[in-house]
């Protein structure tokens, strides 16, 4: 799951994403980028997240944990 999330994030932000990346690092990952990331996750993985989950989960590791809990 982590590899897939990293790939989706790399595509959304058009830069290299690592497992320790989070909002603000890279700078392309801002609040609008966060929404775009979760829309891409929903589109590619078919997993929907609530607004609160989108706000609270702002790192690759927390997003992976969230998505794994929804599988």
Question: What does the secondary structure layout of this molecule look like, with pairings?
Answer:
Blueprint: H1 2-13, H2 31-45, H3 51-56, H4 60-70
What is shown here, in short?
This protein is mainly alpha-helical. 62% of the residues lie in helices and 0% in strands.
CATH level 3 topology: Non-ribosomal Peptide Synthetase Peptidyl Carrier Protein, Chain A
Inertia-based shape? globular
Q: What is the distance, rounded to the nearest whole angstrom, between the alpha carbons of the first and last residues?
A: 10 Å
β-strand amount: under 5%
What's the order of the H and E elements? HHHH
* Residue windows where pLDDT falls under 50 for at least 5 positions: none
Q: Report the major sheet.
A: none
Q: Assign the CATH superfamily.
A: ACP-like
The structural class is mainly alpha
Architecture in CATH?
Answer: Orthogonal Bundle
Radius of gyration: 11 Å
How many domain regions? 1
Instruction: Provide the helix percentage.
Output: 55-70%
| Tally of contiguous helical segments | 4
What's the total number of strands? 0
The CATH class: Mainly Alpha
The overall pLDDT, averaged over residues, is 97
Pfam families: PP-binding
InterPro entries: ACP-like_sf, PP-bd_ACP
Organism: Halarcobacter mediterraneus
Protein name: Acyl carrier protein
């Amino acid at each position: 799951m982590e590899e897939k999330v990293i790939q989706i994030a790399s595509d959304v932000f058009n830069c290299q994403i690592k497992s320790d990346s989070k909002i603000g690092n890279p700078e392309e990952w801002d609040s609008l980028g966060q929404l775009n990331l979760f829309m891409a996750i929903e589109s590619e993985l078919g997993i929907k997240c609530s607004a609160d989950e989108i706000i609270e989960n702002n790192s690759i590791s927390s997003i992976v944990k969230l998505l794994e809990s929804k599988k």
